[in-house]
Write a structure and sequence with these properties.
This protein is mainly α and 97 residues long. It has three helices and no strands. It has one domain.
């Protein structure tokens, strides 16, 4: 669960919605398939590292766009290696994401 105030896409104004959409365009196609079942909370909501940055849309777009570029295929790491690194960092940071 995101512990900071955030603005989900459904409640975003037009500028924030455009930022969300621009970021989603950069991510690998499997990210756009919908919520990951393991991230759906009992109340039906989901958490998102992107949404956690939603209070400052310009910063969110810069930071998350950089991540989206780093996830592109053809870079030095396989997708499996990228996910393993992300998982290890999340565990080390006690982060649910």
């Amino acid at each position: 669960m995101t512990w900071i105030q955030h603005i989900p896409y459904e409640q975003a104004d037009d500028d924030l919605k455009r930022a969300y959409e621009a970021i989603r365009q950069l991510y690998p196609s499997e990210y756009a398939a919908g919520p990951v079942p393991s991230l759906v909370r009992p109340d039906g909501g989901t958490d998102s590292i992107t949404t956690a940055h939603s209070l400052i849309p310009a910063a969110m777009q810069h930071m998350m766009s950089g991540l989206g570029v780093l996830l592109q295929p053809g870079l030095g790491l396989t997708r499996r290696q990228q996910e393993m690194i992300a998982a290890v960092v999340s565990v080390e940071n006690s982060c649910f994401y």
